[in-house]
Amino acid sequence: MSQQAEPLDVEAIRADFPILQREFDGTRLVYLDNAATTQTPEPVVEAIADYYRTTNANVHRGLHQLSQEASVAYEEAHDRVAEFIGASGGRQEVVFTKNTTEAVNLVAYAWGLNELGPGDEVVLTEMEHHAALVTWQQIAKRTGADCHYVPITDEGRLDMDAAREMITDDTAMVSAVHVSNTLGTVNPVGELADIAHDHDALVFVDAAQSVPHRPVDVEQLDADFLAFSGHKMAGPTGIGVLYGKRHLLEGMEPYLYGGDMILKVTFEDATWNELPWKFEAGTPVISQGIALAEACDYLDDLGMANVERHEAALAEYAHDRLTSFDDVEVYGPPGDDRGGLVAFNLDGVHAHDLSSILNDSAVAIRAGDHCTQPLHDVLGTAASARASFYVYNTREEVDRLVAAIDDARQLFA
Amino acid sequence: MGPGSDMYRQQILDHYKNPRNYGELEDADVEHVGENPMCGDTIKLFIELADDGETIDRVSFIGDGCAISQASASMLSGELRDMSPSAVREMDRNDVVDLLGVELSPMRVKCAVLAEKVAQDAIAIHLAGKADEETRDVRKRCPARGDIL
Asked: Distances in Å between the alpha carbon of B41 and those of A351, B68, B103, B114?
């Protein structure tokens, strides 16, 4: 990973993403919905196509050459992803899932259902995505455990004083989002992990908006579990990653049963395969896993520190421009201290209308509750508009966004 | 500006900014609230029927949401007046889309039809309530044998 500060060569990067050349009614697409899904560069598209052209076979089942090649590539993809997030345990600590949501569910079912009970507490944050919030909420209901939510400050940061009070010896799990997909807040999850571990609680980190955008080292954070999605980091849809400390994953029961996750099966009983296959029942996400490893290569070639810096600069610029208007409310912390996204509302124009009008200028943003309905309740609005950035976005595109917002302002004036 | 702004023609913006029949009716025969939980649009409809119950006398609404959902409620509130409950029940989603008079993107049709759905649900609830009342009335007039003893 390059630690030297280097500006991204955005022009060269954009050449890897042909979709960015699309035009709608003669207007070039401005894609600012990267927190929902990022675009896929040619090398990753090629990796998928190449796999199907040359290597496609089921894994772990055949003794023929293709199956062996597919198995090796698929297994090595786990090692590559482990390296990308600093998991020294390699493939045994990296489970491929469908997405971040399934990774949370895996932990909630395989660990939560067995370990949680009345009197236990799960501590989350007010800025959790529904993926973690709803999952722990429902598992808590089934086990008799309680959920508590660390509040946010007026500035949209986590209230760490409250967190220190709320995380107690009754806490069994702290589940926190690393970078808020709505506020852009970067949460001190390493500090949360320390607090949790002082009380013998575990920490689950929802890293869906951090791993794609900044260097993340699971061991530096001391996260017990951490999850993210392939399609938000230049990879394909259909694959997510659950990182778990090896001894924890070893102690957990399987989440899904079936083929490949077993060692020995009789009519009466079964034993489980080694990690991570114990948690990957059935034919797994083979091409997606191989393509995700390619995406890791692509991002590491750019340098994750450079990616972070590029997005931070765009977010700050967008924040500065948007906050210069009296009729725009921007949510979350100041511009120089946030992930690469900005959520906002334009006075008198519903976020859905705003997004529709921006679409007329070929500017793609997200509008809605961003799967954080309870957080929007705290913010006092049903919906917001959100511009989110990636490696291929430019300041000119932020200007296009601001100009299109002005169109909406005029239209609704 | 691109051609898609057709969705926000003057008429829709006018109804959004100056909604007709906006507010609550104190003596409404029916009140019903509905929402699109996925986008948070909310419409609460108040309907006052004529004494014979066969036509709608007054309609009002309050709500919160995007321009399409609120303009559609405003326009529909005018249309509902003088309609019969059964005619309201027979409306289909094209009627209200026609009322708006713009091409809606598929994702926005649900915004447009929210008010219509609330109106139809309101009428259905009202008619069901009336049916219950009638049943009760019949019971009063013709008590079951057990009741006599």
From this structure: 11, 10, 20, 8
